[in-house]
Write a structure and sequence with these properties.
The chain is mostly helical. It contains 13 helices and 6 strands.
Length: 336
């Protein structure tokens, strides 16, 4: 074979390979009227795994083509996890660009302040995601081991806010990590004040979870925190209903109403029967509740009672408190 013929054959082969490569990577893989298809990329997924997923969705003619394209583009390790929707007449190059930019489908979920892990799991389920995967991720205290060595789960450490909700169970752990990261960010400017309080971080978060559940009024939270801190210093029981409700939930007997007999439940969370803080947080406190514990009001009050309008009457003595209870609760048929 002459040199000229060999060169011609090589040129022809190169042209064929170029056309094949162009067709595999730049030609549309779908028709304009094809329905959208979901593509889920789990955290830590390899290029090979993503290529196989694309092959199953008929978005690549062979997974090795995707791997070769990733290598040629220098994109290894840069593909972003998440849920994607592929629609329209896209090419493999365009799919890769989508993965590099992280153009994920957003499913926002808002966790209000004062929700416990089970309630958060219910919200996740209502949004169509995997409740059990969320609770499994939230049961691992490893993410806060440095903050709270005594933690047995992430109760109290998943910061209430709005997040992007993964639909994939495998990606739910990413949501939990983001919630802990958000908690750390909110905590950071309060740490100096919390250190001066004499409370451990676990104690501070535990107390903040009660403050969060006792009042929705931001201006009252520093006073509520002061009452509980004053009672702790005097060795008085906290006597707060939210802890009893939490105990009833754990016992599976909570029906939405708290009764006088419920105050006798034998539980370490029953702050009517036990002095001091209960074992750990009972809900996720927001920023203002955490701030209230870090910066409580200079208040001598030891008692408070609801005025039935969202606010509370604070008292320094038992006699004052009894009069307030009589005024705001007993005459209205409240438990008092």
């Amino acid at each position: 074979m002459t040199i000229v013929r060999r060169a011609a054959l090589l040129a022809l082969l190169a042209a064929v390979l170029y056309v094949a490569w162009y067709h595999a990577t730049r030609a549309p893989l779908r028709a304009a009227d094809d329905p959208p298809v979901p593509l889920v990329v789990p955290p830590g997924a390899s290029t090979e795994a993503i290529g196989l997923a694309l092959g199953q969705l008929q978005l690549v003619r062979h997974p090795m083509v995707f791997k070769a394209l990733v290598l040629l583009r220098g994109a290894s390790g840069r593909l972003r996890a998440g849920e994607y929707t592929v629609e329209g007449p896209v090419s493999l190059e365009q799919v890769l660009d989508m993965l590099l930019r992280g153009e994920v489908v957003r499913h926002d979920i808002t966790f209000p302040e004062g929700k416990n892990l089970e309630e958060m799991g219910d919200l996740v389920a209502l949004r169509g995601a995997d409740r059990e995967a969320f609770l499994r991720a939230a049961s691992d205290p490893g993410l806060v081991r440095d903050l709270d060595p005594a933690a047995t789960n992430l109760e109290g450490y998943l910061f209430p806010d709005t997040y992007d909700l993964p639909r994939s169970g495998a990606a739910t752990a990413v949501l939990v990590e983001r919630m802990v990261q958000r908690f750390r960010a909110v905590l950071e400017p309060l740490q100096a004040d919390l250190s001066r309080s004499g409370l451990s971080l676990r104690e501070a978060v535990t107390l903040a979870s009660i403050v969060e559940l006792e009042t929705a009024r931001a201006e009252e939270r520093p006073r509520i925190a002061a009452v509980f801190l004053n009672r702790l210093r005097r060795g008085m029981p906290l006597q707060t209903d939210p802890t009893v409700i939490y105990a009833l939930r754990k016992a599976g007997t909570w029906d939405g109403n708290i009764r006088k007999r419920d105050l006798e439940i034998d539980s370490p969370y029953n702050t009517y029967r036990r002095v001091g803080l209960h074992p750990g947080p009972i809900a996720s406190p927001g920023r203002e509740a955490l701030r209230a514990v870090a910066q409580p009001a200079p208040d001598k009050a030891l008692y408070f009672v609801s005025r039935n309008d969202g606010t509370h009457q604070f008292s320094e003595t038992l006699a004052e408190h009894e009069r307030a209870v009589d005024r705001y609760q007993r005459r209205r048929g409240g438990r008092g």
